[in-house]
Structure formats: structure tokens, C-alpha cells
TrEMBL record:
<dbReference type="InterPro" id="IPR013815">
    <property type="entry name" value="ATP_grasp_subdomain_1"/>
</dbReference>
<keyword id="KW-0418">Kinase</keyword>
<dbReference type="InterPro" id="IPR015813">
    <property type="entry name" value="Pyrv/PenolPyrv_kinase-like_dom"/>
</dbReference>
<comment type="similarity">
    <text>Belongs to the PEP-utilizing enzyme family.</text>
</comment>
<keyword id="KW-0460">Magnesium</keyword>
<dbReference type="InterPro" id="IPR000121">
    <property type="entry name" value="PEP_util_C"/>
</dbReference>
<keyword id="KW-0547">Nucleotide-binding</keyword>
<keyword id="KW-0670">Pyruvate</keyword>
<dbReference type="InterPro" id="IPR018274">
    <property type="entry name" value="PEP_util_AS"/>
</dbReference>
<dbReference type="InterPro" id="IPR040442">
    <property type="entry name" value="Pyrv_kinase-like_dom_sf"/>
</dbReference>
<dbReference type="InterPro" id="IPR002192">
    <property type="entry name" value="PPDK_AMP/ATP-bd"/>
</dbReference>
<dbReference type="Pfam" id="PF00391">
    <property type="entry name" value="PEP-utilizers"/>
</dbReference>
<keyword id="KW-0067">ATP-binding</keyword>
<feature type="domain" description="Pyruvate phosphate dikinase AMP/ATP-binding">
    <location>
        <begin position="65"/>
        <end position="290"/>
    </location>
</feature>
<dbReference type="InterPro" id="IPR008279">
    <property type="entry name" value="PEP-util_enz_mobile_dom"/>
</dbReference>
<dbReference type="InterPro" id="IPR036637">
    <property type="entry name" value="Phosphohistidine_dom_sf"/>
</dbReference>
<dbReference type="InterPro" id="IPR010121">
    <property type="entry name" value="Pyruvate_phosphate_dikinase"/>
</dbReference>
Length: 902
């Protein structure tokens, strides 16, 4: 973006507020908001995301930025009564990233900016604590070296470990000032050797380089990967927060911590968080030392604890949500370093939303917006069977719930490699760091021996909905030898382990799973509010009930038999949007289809169709009974005929072997000839769908007759069948007109023969670009459209789903060409524009045209919002995704209503 001369690039904390997240990032906006509330926030200022955008686009910071930073820095120095870099009593600042959306650990932070060989002595004298000063200096060199100068962080860690080993201690707090002075000297040598330059002694140079490093961290591989995973736009940029330092590493009366106003794992009210004495903030989230529970702070420093509890109540009431808070205590003085709406597990999201309604802080419409279909889907995953025989290895902190089973791996690279080979893996680390993100994404779950609920592993896992157990101290993780030891038990890489993110338990081997209580609720096997379901099911019930009341979109199921139909109905389906009749031709009926394909005469073909008719009719009778009173959309035969014949290679081998034995099988020979005859270079663009009905006489007539006779039988049995006949792959209205004329004639015959009036509607799938572009013509012969977005995506993009997902989709996702697979979430700009266009054209011709979608996009949360927006009447999806579609349809309606009211 171009630089505006009058543009303001720096804001003091007193100038902003929480509504300026686009400009100040989430951290800066919330620091300003807490300042406005009169909470104890160290003074500071924020460099805007606009400055970052200019830097990333041009490669240099805006011309006005240095002058603005200098002015705000001078004001900060005046307020604090000390200067950055002065030798006797130096002002130190932190430089921290802060994007609009929370990206925990993905971008860079540097603490203790302003320390040098001279000012460290002044800090020691001013604080009366030489150890503290040199500890702060070694931290600066370590963070600056890794973050700004791109030095391998492991080199600093190894030097620190060696210093502790030489002193025969296990934690860094046991190193004294003399030890830390030696460590500073070694760290500076590491920087000089690895970075090719000395560690900068000029404080302003440190500050400017750190700001540029934060800007650059927006485009690190881990940050880009996280944005793709969380679907965060890549053009937002990050703000930079420059804050006067407060110190938690001044001794036992100081410390740092992270607090939550409610448990982010369960949603329960209470005191949740971690505290670490004599530490700086990065120590907590990095899991370097195991923390104590926040509740222990009451015994350590009651005054600070009481003040923190009051502030937490203030923030939750003000933000009307779970708040995640970072704080530091400096010699008994509490300072607030950050707050944000906290990441939470799926179960916590539903519980908290209903709790806040009961407290009168939000209404039901807002509660519905606080949860998502992705979270509901997570709640429907299985859990471990409590009655199963297990071998318990240990127990850690239940950081993110779920039941995860996989092979143990000890580094991110292996996790990704094995996962791509189809293996399910559990990533095991002492503690994770941002560089482990790709391995965390690839894993079924994450297990660490260090850290707590606020560690990097816990926060990122909760955000992704991954199962996570942290701080399992009894597990000795040896990443170099690729093994984990628990007592006498050794778990090598590749051994199977199971982790329970709801209890923190870690098991050896595979533990069997059972259905989740939420699925049991949808199945009707558990009532809302039942004791064993906790209040989770009750919370889900309340929010689902509201979603169903406000949604406009109806939700149907893709189901091909009575069993799936009944399950779909229990899950809340309002009909069947896609019954695929080809599934009724498989199994023992395949022989009849082969007879139909091999028929040489009209008589042979009629005989095969006559044998298939009663079987099809029986299927439809069962289906209409299961969905009595609800619409059932039956798609006529769609796939290419070769799918019903044996594999060409297998059949060729069979025929060749028979010939070698001179034991000819006439039927196999005919089948092989038919397979060769039906062979197509691209069968998904060949003889299928409506084209089959037009070139194979009697095929669609048989199917229509089976549907009509089944409907008549059900109606004569006092049922209420509501069949809809759908013609697939139509590209021109003439195709549909021919099929409809034949269908109308068959239906009339059945009505006359059974004495029953059948109100069967006939429509088509819109799954070809031409159909979408000529939808006004097709609507003249169609009573409904159902968008087949799977095929429409294939034909718009010009690629086959079966081939490309395995060949180049991974590369496209990694390069950012796709934010998400277009088969997972609808491509609004391409496929979506055709859906919008066809809906508009179709209703221009036939205002009462019913519109639905039956591709898998019908159950995708983001796609459901799009279908609501373009005015479809219903979505249809697999039975398991019906609750998700119901919830998202409600959210789409509530969101639209909220936008209208604004």
C-alpha cells in the first residue's frame, strides 16, 4: 500500500480502544481498552498494522515512522523518568507483535530492549539485584539473537543447559550473577559467530531492528501456516506494541502468569491459570519451568491475588466473554500486560455461551454467534471407553479434550511424514514451540512433559480443536533418542499411545472409543440435562433449539436407504435431499445390471429391467416409510455404467487364465467386450446421468415407475409419501423435457392402475456450468433445482476430485493458492457465482422454484452461510453433519438479522 503523508502510524495506549483491532491489532487495542478502564497497564505505544503493510510492500518502514516513534518514545521517557539506553537507570521496553486475530506464538517478541554492557550495571544498581540484571541481559541477547539476527535458538539452549550442568542445578533460577555473566559472554560470542556481527550496544538500534523483525515475522512459514489453518487473511499485517518493561524476575516477591476468567477447557467458572515466581512472561507460555496453579498465588501474594480477581471480574463483565489475561507482579505490584477473548474448547464454548445468557450479559442471538459448526462437530467425536482395560502410563494436565490414538513420534518432521503416509500419530515433545506447528496440525493429538493450560501446546491445540495433554512430568521425553520413558516402561517411536485430553491420562496402546454424549443426545438416547452428560448436552440443546427457531434454511439428508434415513431423521433432518439410486444396484443386484448392459435385444433389456423394478420399488417403499411426511428427492441413475462392471485388469486376467486352460467362460468374454466398449478416457465427462436415460431405452422409465408405485403403495397404506424425482447432469432444457415427458406418462399410468393421485415433482441437478448459465430455460421444465456442487466444482475448475486431491492439492494449499480445498468449502468467486446466477435466473422464470444443494458443501459451516445469503431453500448433507448444518443455518439467519438491524 502507498504511504499517506498525513497518516498516523503510532498511537499511545491512551489514544486507542478495543474497536480499533484492524489498526492496532488485538493486543494493542486491548491494552488501550484496559488503560481506558483505569487498570494498571505499563505505559507504552503501538505501531499500527498500516505501517507493517507499507514495510512488507516496499521493504522499508514508512518515512514518517522513525520520527513518530521518537516522539512517543520521548513522551514515554518523560512519563517514566528515565531514558532508553542510559547507563545509570535505563528504561527498558518490550517489543511485541499483535495481529487483529490471535496467533499465539506465531510471531515475534523481544523483551528487555535497552540493555547493554554498560546499562546492565545501572539496572543492577537501581534494582539492588545484580542477578536480576544479568538474567535480563542474557534473556535479551537470547531472544534478540534468535528473533532478530536469525541465530539458531538451540545454540543458546545448549549453552544454558551446559551452564546448569556445570553448576549441578536443574533450573535457571539456581544460576547466580557470576554464572549469568559468563553466560552473557558466551551468548555474545554465539551471536558474533552465527550472525556475523556483534550484539548491538545501541538501544535505539535494538529497538528499530526488533520492530522490523516483528514486521517480518508476519510472513514466516509458521505464521503463514497458522493463518491458512485458521483461515486468517494474509493481507492484514501485524501491529507492534512497545511497552515499558515490568519485571517478574526480581525475586520471590515477583512473578508472571496467565489467567482465565473461566476454565478454557471446560467452561466452568472458577480460578484458572498458571503462575511462575521469579520469571518473565515467556517462561510461562514456553513451558520451560512447570508452573503452579493460579490459586496458589493467594498464599504467595494475597494482595495481588485479590486485586487480580477483581480485575478479572471487571474484564469479563466488560467484554462479556471469557478473557485470557497475561500479568506480571513486580515486587508486589500487579501489572496487566494483555487481555483478549480467550480461545476455548468446543465444550467450553457451548457452556460459556449459555452461562452468559443466564447471567444476563448476552442474549440468545449472541450466544448462537459464540459457537460454531466446527465446534459442534468436535463434540460429536468419540471418547474413550471408561470400562475398557487400559495400561496407564501417567497423567498430565487436561489441556484440550478429545480421545486421540496414534503412533508416538518425537519431532514435527516425522509427524508430517508419517501422517502423509496414512499413519495416525501423537506428537510427543518436552514442550512445543511455534516451529512445531506443522507437526501439531498433522497429529491426532499432542503430548508434552512440561507446561500447563497456558503453554504454547495447550493454547494452539485448543484453537485447532486438537486433543492435548500437557505437563505430564512423570514422562521422561528424550527427543534425541526418540523415546519416552515412564518408570521401567520405554515407548519407542512408532509405539501406539492413547491420550485423553478431557482427563489428562496417557495410556499405552490403543484404547477403544465409545460415542460422545452429544451424539447420544441427537440419537435420542440421552435427555438434555441428564446427570451423566454434565451440563454440556443441556447447553447444546438450548443453542440448537434457538438455531432451529430462527433459521430459514431447511436441512435435509443425503441418504440411500431406510437405516440412514431414520438416523438422519433422529438428527433433525427435514427430508432427504439426495437419494442415490446407483447404490441400490450394487451387491447381489450387480448381476442384473450386468444383464442390462449386455442385453443385445429389446427383449433381453426389458427382462433385466423387469427384474430390477420390484427391487427398486421395495427400496423406495422402505425409504418413504422412514421419511413419511417429509420430502424425499430421488436422483435417477447417475454414474457411468463401467462402474457396475468388473475391473478391466481383473477381468482380463480372468479371461486369459480361462483361455490358457481352454475353459472359456462366455459371460466373462461378453463382459470384457462390454468393458472395452464402454471404456472412456474421462468417464465423469462421458456417458452418465441424463445421457444414460436417453440412450438406454426404459432405464429411467423403470426407475420412475418404481418410485411412483412405491409412493402409491405407501399412500394407500395411509402414509404421506412426498417423492421428488431428480434428473442428473442436465446441460440443456431439451434433455430434461424428454425425460419429463416420459416420466409424466409413467406416473399417469401408475395413477390409473392404482387409483391414487400422486403429486410427484420433477426437477434437476445443476452441476454443469452450462446448466447454471441457462437456468432460466431449464426452469421452464423443472419444478426444483438441486445444486450438485461436487460435480459443479469439478467442471468449473476442470479437475477431477479423485485425482487432484492426492496429486497437487497439498502443494496448492502450502503455496496459498487455496486457503482451503474448494471441495471442502465452496469457491464463492467461481462456483458460488454460478450458483447465485442460476438461482436468480431460475426464479425469474419460475418464482416458486424450490432451490437446494446436495453436494457435501451442504454440511460445511462456511458454505451454509453462503447458501443462506443466495436464497436457497434447503441444504442437504450426510446424516452426521445435519446438526452442524442446522446450527450454521441458525447462525446465518441470526447474523443476517443482526446486520439488517445495524
Amino acid at each position: 500500500m502507498s504511504e499517506n503523508k498525513d497518516q498516523k502510524f503510532v498511537y499511545d495506549f491512551t489514544e486507542g480502544n478495543r474497536d480499533l483491532k484492524d489498526l492496532l491489532g488485538g493486543k494493542g487495542a486491548n491494552l488501550a481498552e484496559m488503560t481506558n478502564l483505569g487498570l494498571p497497564v505499563p505505559p507504552g505505544f503501538t505501531i499500527t498494522t498500516e505501517a507493517c503493510k507499507v514495510y512488507l510492500e516496499s521493504g522499508t518502514a514508512p518515512a514518517a515512522l522513525r520520527e513518530e516513534v521518537s516522539a512517543h518514545l520521548a513522551a514515554l521517557e518523560a512519563k517514566m523518568g528515565k531514558k532508553l539506553g542510559q547507563s545509570d537507570d535505563p528504561l527498558l521496553v518490550s517489543v511485541r507483535s499483535g495481529a487483529k486475530f490471535s496467533m499465539p506464538g506465531m510471531m515475534d517478541t523481544v523483551l528487555n530492549i535497552g540493555l547493554s554492557d554498560e546499562s546492565v550495571k545501572g539496572l543492577a544498581a537501581q534494582a539492588g539485584n545484580e542477578r536480576f540484571a544479568w538474567d535480563s541481559y542474557r534473556r535479551l541477547i537470547q531472544m534478540f539473537g534468535k528473533t532478530v539476527l536469525d541465530v539458531d535458538g538451540e545454540l543458546f539452549e545448549e549453552a544454558l543447559d551446559e551452564a546448569k550442568a556445570a553448576k549441578k542445578v536443574t533450573v535457571d533460577t539456581d544460576l547466580d550473577a557470576a554464572d549469568l555473566k559468563k553466560l552473557v559472554t558466551r551468548f555474545k560470542k554465539i551471536v558474533a559467530k552465527q550472525a556475523g556481527r556483534e550484539f548491538p550496544q545501541d538501544a535505539r538500534e535494538q529497538l528499530d531492528l526488533a520492530v522490523e523483525a516483528v514486521f517480518n515475522s508476519w510472513n514466516t512459514d509458521r505464521a503463514k501456516l497458522y493463518r491458512r489453518q485458521e483461515r486468517i487473511p494474509s493481507d492484514l499485517g501485524t501491529a507492534v506494541n512497545i511497552c515499558s518493561m515490568v519485571f517478574g524476575n526480581l525475586g520471590p516477591d515477583s512473578g508472571t502468569g496467565v489467567a482465565f476468567t473461566r476454565d478454557p477447557a471446560s467452561g466452568h467458572a472458577g480460578v484458572y491459570g498458571d503462575y511462575l515466581q521469579n520469571a518473565q512472561g515467556e517462561d510461562v507460555v514456553a513451558g520451560i519451568r512447570n508452573t503452579v496453579p493460579l490459586a496458589d498465588l493467594e498464599a504467595i501474594d494475597k494482595a495481588s491475588y485479590d486485586q487480580l480477581m477483581t480485575i478479572m471480574t471487571t474484564l469479563e463483565t466488560h467484554y462479556k466473554d471469557l478473557c485470557d489475561i497475561e500479568f506480571t507482579i513486580e515486587r508486589g505490584q500487579l501489572w496487566m500486560l494483555q487481555t483478549r477473548v480467550g480461545k476455548r474448547t468446543a465444550g467450553a464454548a457451548f457452556r460459556i455461551a449459555t452461562q452468559l445468557v443466564d447471567q444476563g450479559l448476552i442474549d440468545e442471538a449472541e450466544a448462537l454467534q459464540r459457537v460454531s459448526g466446527h465446534q459442534l462437530a468436535q463434540l460429536m467425536f468419540p471418547r474413550f471407553d471408561e470400562g475398557a482395560k487400559t495400561t496407564l502410563l501417567g497423567r498430565g494436565i487436561a489441556a484440550s479434550p478429545g480421545a486421540a490414538v496414534g503412533k508416538a513420534v518425537f519431532d514435527s518432521y516425522t509427524a508430517v511424514k508419517w501422517s502423509r503416509s496414512g499413519e495416525k500419530v501423537i506428537l510427543i515433545r518436552r514442550e512445543t514451540n511455534p516451529d512445531d506447528l506443522d507437526g501439531m496440525i498433522a497429529s491426532e493429538g499432542i503430548l508434552t512433559s512440561r507446561g500447563g493450560k497456558t503453554s504454547h501446546a495447550a493454547v494452539v491445540a485448543r484453537g485447532m480443536g486438537k486433543t492435548c495433554v500437557c505437563g505430564a512430568e512423570e514422562l521422561d521425553v528424550d527427543t534425541k533418542r526418540r523415546r519416552m520413558t515412564v518408570g521401567d516402561t520405554v515407548i519407542e517411536e512408532g509405539d501406539v499411545v492413547s491420550i485423553d485430553g478431557s482427563t489428562g491420562k496417557v495410556y499405552l496402546g490403543e484404547v477403544p472409543v465409545v460415542p460422545s454424549p452429544v451424539v447420544e443426545y441427537f440419537e435420542g438416547r440421552m435427555h438434555a440435562g441428564a446427570d451423566d452428560a454434565d451440563e454440556l448436552v443441556a447447553a447444546v440443546h438450548r443453542i440448537m433449539a434457538y438455531a432451529d427457531r430462527v433459521r430459514r434454511l431447511r436441512v435435509r439428508a443425503n441418504a440411500d436407504n431406510a437405516e440412514d434415513a431414520l438416523r438422519a431423521r433422529r438428527f433433525g433432518a427435514q427430508g432427504i435431499g439426495l437419494c442415490r439410486t446407483e447404490h441400490m444396484f450394487l451387491g447381489e443386484r450387480r448381476e442384473l445390471v450386468e444383464r442390462l448392459i449386455l442385453a443385445d435385444t429389446d427383449g433381453e433389456r426389458e427382462e433385466a429391467l423387469s427384474a430390477l423394478l420390484p427391487l427398486q420399488k421395495k427400496d423406495f417403499v422402505e425409504l418413504f416409510e422412514a421419511m413419511d411426511g417429509l420430502p424425499v428427492t430421488v436422483r435417477l441413475l447417475d454414474p457411468p455404467l463401467h462402474e457396475f462392471l468388473p475391473d478391466i485388469t481383473e477381468l482380463s486376467v480372468r479371461v486369459a487364465l480361462a483361455e490358457s486352460r481352454k475353459d472359456h467362460n462366455e459371460n466373462d468374454l461378453r463382459l470384457l467386450q462390454a468393458v472395452h466398449k464402454l471404456h472412456e478416457q474421462n468417464p465423469m465427462l462421458g456417458l452418465r446421468g441424463v445421457r444414460l436415460g436417453l440412450v438406454i431405452p426404459g432405464l429411467f422409465k423403470m426407475q420412475v415407475r418404481a418410485i411412483a408405485e412405491a409412493a402409491a403403495e405407501r399412500k394407500n397404506a395411509k402414509g404421506d409419501p412426498r417423492a421428488e424425482i431428480m434428473v442428473p447432469l442436465v446441460g440443456t432444457v431439451q434433455e430434461l423435457e424428454i425425460v419429463r415427458d416420459e416420466a409424466d406418462a409413467v406416473i399417469a399410468e401408475v395413477e390409473a392402475a392404482t387409483g391414487t393421485s400422486l403429486k410427484l415433482t420433477i426437477g434437476t441437478m445443476i452441476e454443469l456450468p452450462r446448466a447454471a448459465l441457462t437456468a432460466d430455460q431449464i426452469a421452464e421444465a423443472a419444478q426444483f433445482f438441486s445444486f450438485g456442487t461436487n460435480d459443479l466444482t469439478q467442471t468449473v475448475w476442470g479437475f477431477s476430485r479423485d485425482d487432484v486431491e492426492a496429486s497437487f492439492f497439498t502443494a496448492y494449499l502450502e503455496k496459498g493458492i487455496f486457503g482451503v480445498s474448494p471441495f471442502e468449502t465452496i469457491d464463492k468467486d467461481g462456483v458460488g457465482s454460478l450458483v447465485r446466477h442460476a438461482a436468480k435466473l431460475g426464479r425469474a422464470t419460475r418464482p416458486d422454484l424450490k432451490l437446494g444443494v446436495c453436494g457435501e458443501h451442504g454440511g460445511d459451516p462456511e458454505s451454509v452461510h453462503f447458501f443462506h445469503e443466495v436464497g436457497l431453500d434447503y441444504v442437504s448433507c450426510s446424516p452426521f453433519r445435519i446438526p452442524v448444518a442446522r446450527l450454521e443455518a441458525g447462525r446465518a439467519a441470526a447474523e443476517a438479522k443482526g446486520s439488517d438491524s445495524r
